[in-house]
Amino acid sequence: MKATGTDPLRFSLLGPLRAWRAESELELGSPQQRAVLAGLLLRRGRAAGLGDLVAGVWGTDPPPGAVSVLRTYVSRLRKLLEPERETGEPPRLVVSLGDGYALRTDAVSSDLDTFEEYVARAERHRAAGDPGSAADLLRTALATWSGTPLAGVPGPYAEAERTHLDRRRLGMLETRLRLELGLGRHEAVLPELAALRDAHPLRENVCELLLLALYRAGRQAEALEEYARTRRTLVDELGIEPGPSLRALHARILAGEGEPEEPAARGAASPAGDPAAAQPPSRTPLLPKAALQPAQLPADLPVFTGRRSELDRATALLPEDGPPAGVTIVLVEGMAGTGKTSLAVHWAHRVAGRFPDGALYVNLRGYDPGGAGMPPSYALQTFLVALGVPPGSVPDGLDAQAALYRSVLARRRVLIVLDNARDAEQVRPLLPGTPGCLVVVTSRSRLSSLVAGQGAYPLTLGPPTPEEAREMLVRRLGPARVAAEPEAADAIVGLCAGLPLALAITAARAAQHPGFRLADIADELRENHGGLDAFVGGDAETDARAVFSWSYHALPPATAELFRRLALHPGPDLTSPAAAALAGVPVRAVRTLLAELTTANLLMERSPGRFVFHDLLRAYATELADAETETETEAEAEAEEEVGGSAAGRALLRMHDHYLRTAHHAAAVLGPFHAMVPLPEAVPGSSPGRFEDRKQATTWLRTERQVLGAVVAHAAAHGYDEHAWRTACALDLYFNRLGYNHDLVEINAIALRAARALGDRVGQAHALRGLGYSALRLGRAEGMRQLEHALELFQEAGDGFGEALTRRSLAFQTNQAGRHDVSLGHYDRALALYRELGLRNGEAGVRNEVGWTYILLGEHEKALRECEQAITVYRETGDLFGLASAEDSLGYALHHLGRYDGAVPRFERSVELFREIGDRYMEADSLRHLGATHRAAGAPAAAQAAWSRAVVLLAEAGNPEAEEVREDLRALGETGAVGGGAVGTGPSGVARAAAGHQEGSRSA
Asked: Do residues 890 and 868 make contact, with C-beta atoms less than 8 angstroms apart?
């Protein structure tokens, strides 16, 4: 039969990318066109921005005109997939969304969909106590694979997805084999396990399964030999011992202690010995549970060498096998530049395998030139979130945070590295309270009180031995070059005082110029020998300024100027665009300058596009910047005043304008209908960032979180007050949605001081509104007074927009306090203000929040009317986020009226819209509501499907709420609960839902 354009489309992703219409295979075009198609298919109906598609196909170096080429590929795909579409008729499959495209997957099918469907069915059978059917279904699922996924499809996106899909397949294969073992089929799976072991010799899960199968087959000696082989491989390849689970299984087999349990959950064969009839009581999910095991250690230095004595002494502090009996604290102390951090990180990687619950790392920045380092409270907040505590659940106050931190670490075995501590007071709150953890502290100071009070083991790090220092040069320059000039190499070691940092900079200079004799480099060091005030030992040989100044003076003028400008940046690290703003040059140009600084080891690229100074180099750059200002002549100073201040002042103004405008644009992308505070006139050369979609904006805000706090504080402290309060205001939307209330309290308090210094009453009002709302979310009573003061200031200034926002914040709080009549009064006034201003989206937001208030009052019919009015306006304005929130509210009201048939499509529409927007958290939130309604309507299977999807979304984002939904799923599986019930009745309760609705609709 001849295929037509209306026949269903099928795609193959789990092998070479192929497509069929009916029985006819389609020619998918060039490899790059296939890469575009794969990018759309794998997003499962979500929009892909042009920037994401271009990067996915060509990476960071796209060809000229890449966007035009990509649009051509999309046009060809539309013709291929919809050959009967008339000219002028809008496409139905590959549709335009925003600045990108999406492929409607509801109209197509794929082998990946089939695979996931069989996996989901297998999970249901396993949960129901039918492992035999689960194993068969998984076998069928794995049979859908036809080779390497996306074979032949080029580009970094396809490569990343290939890796992800391969891991997914391997995980399901291990799960199937685990089920087969539980059914007593150990003989049958042995050949497959042996082949899998050969393909993945470092995968301990596979080794455990193979050991168990061999033991159950009566081949104990082979099982023990297999363990020894795997241990040798792990030690030789990774330098680690097997994990605790594999070691425990080995011990039971070695001791012959009965029948060892399988790695996940043991299953029992039937009494008659029929494996097919076995019904193991396993409850291990097929989808891995989101274990919050942080892995925060920085990368190990590839050229690390020496320090054997110190490494041996540190290792001797730990038992030969297993965790320490108590809390072991290793204190690595010594002068700056001796390589304390490199040693600590190298040793931490060597012993990390003994701590299966993860590794935490923080740079406490104890010697930053501008202050006293990172407060322990901020480090605790960072650690708690990494360990799974939601940001909004972190308590207020250092003592409460430290107590929660110790509780979370109880019964866990975690490795903790506290780098660059100033004093013991900075370290003590970060110490665990129970045995099993290892803490590694580095500091330039001798923390004697930590040794006396907490029993820390001091490991004093001086310069390496001459032999070790020489070995450092060999590792960086190669043995032949050092052997050719042994006396010059020894002279360089001596002139650098064996200091690892100085040696690294000198070796970089030599490596960049392979034609230079080492003797000439040694002569340059002698001629430029000086002193660095912050790094002075007992004689001139321990003075590193010569090395720093020599490297600095070897830089081209533009690069040397950037080195000085970077010292002005207040944050712990900075990006290329921020460096461009400081330098006043385009981003493309500054990347070349940054590359020259990193090549000379005067700057480190900690991660792609993010740069950080070593403490000593920052101090040196700061000295240079200060000296530049001090040596200005009076005539130069007068001339600079005419063009906007000193060179450093202009650089700082560009930097603050960069962060203000980038944060403002990020907020505009996240809330396109959120009316923003107007910006002042742009500063030329500030290089503000632009974002193509919500994902990019969110990533920037999350990554720059600590930097943005430091920038706001710096702006207020150095006279850039307008930038301080406006930047804080721009951060309000994102930080509120993520629950970063501690951050908001801090930055808005700074913004308030800055606005008061300006005498800007509107700025004060915005800062008070943000401060008050966040304070109330943290349970601080003064928040209400701050909101009321903000309201007064907005009213005095005649700022109706600000007054409306503040009234909505007040209404949210009075709703929380049960004073719903007061809330309705605030909403009435906010609604009138929005009407006067012509802000229809603001009206819709208030309508949605009024509807939520009526839900809290139990007046659900009134809630329906308000939510329906909000939906009407949102549809007219095109605000998808507001529409999704209002649909969810309407579904909530219908649920409480018992009208489940009406609530379900509303929740489904909300889920669809949040998915289209790309807000995975809100999509999961609406899925939770949908599941609760299905459960109440007596449809447990539908409830399970909705909640399972919510778990996946939350777990992928590392959100701890995933565990709440798992509890709901477990309860559903145990009881098959049906009948009426509240939507979202998990631990977060109505407060979470109320906050979500109030924040979700704040798009005026």
From this structure: yes
Q: Tokens 């033991």 identify what position? A: 215
CB 137 within 8 A of CB 121: yes
Distance CA 911, CA 945 (A): 13
Over residues 756-795, the pLDDT tens digits come to 999 999 999 999 999 999 888 888 888 899 999 999 999 9
- Report the DSSP beta bridge partners of residue 11: 19, 110
Show the tokens assigned to 886.
């209002």
Which of 28, 10, 11, 17 lies closest to 149, judged by CA? Answer: 17
Residue closest to 846 by CA, chosen among 821, 827, 826: 827
Contact between residue 175 and residue 207 where contact means Cβ atoms under 8 Å apart: no
Separation between Cα atoms, residue 305 and residue 387, nearest integer Å: 32
CA 65 to mean position of chain CA atoms: 32
Beta strands in 14-99 (DSSP E): 18-21, 24-25, 48-49, 94-97
Structure tokens at 199: 């393909």
Count of beta carbons in the 10 Å neighbourhood of residue 514 = 9
Q: In what order do the strands lie in the sheet with 24-25?
A: 24-25, 18-21, 9-12, 108-110
CA 405 to chain centre: 20
For 887, counting Cβ atoms within 10 Å of its Cβ (0-12 exposed, 13-18 middle, 19+ buried), the class is buried
Q: Count CB-CB contacts under 10 A for residue 237.
A: 10
CB 360 within 8 A of CB 294: yes
The whole-angstrom distance between residue 533's C-alpha and the CA centroid of its chain comes to 39
Q: 640: exposed, middle or buried (C-beta count within 10 Å: 0-12, 13-18, 19+)?
A: middle
For residue range 859-912, what is the model confidence (pLDDT) as tens digits? 999 999 999 999 999 898 888 888 999 999 999 999 999 999 999 999 999 999
- Bridge-based pairing state of the strands 604-607 and 574-575: unpaired
Answering whether pTM is above 0.90, one says no
Alpha-carbon distances, residue 872 vs 527, 805, 879 (angstroms): 78, 21, 11
Which structure tokens are listed for 687? 């290089």
* Secondary structure letter of residue 289 according to DSSP: P
Report residue 319 as tokens. 């038992």
Neighbours of 531 (CB within 10 A): 14
AA identity, residue 895: H
Which strands, in side-by-side order, build the sheet including 100-103?
A: 48-49, 100-103, 94-97
Residue 995 scores a pLDDT above 60: no
What is the spatial distance between Cα 393 and Cα 400, in angstroms, rounded to a whole number? Answer: 11
Over residues 596-631, the pLDDT tens digits come to: 888 766 788 878 889 988 766 787 788 888 777 665
Q: What is the DSSP letter of 541?
A: G
Report the alpha-carbon angle 575-577-583, nearest 5: 105
Q: For residue 269, is pLDDT > 90? A: no
Question: Contact, 804 vs 675, CB < 8 A?
Answer: no
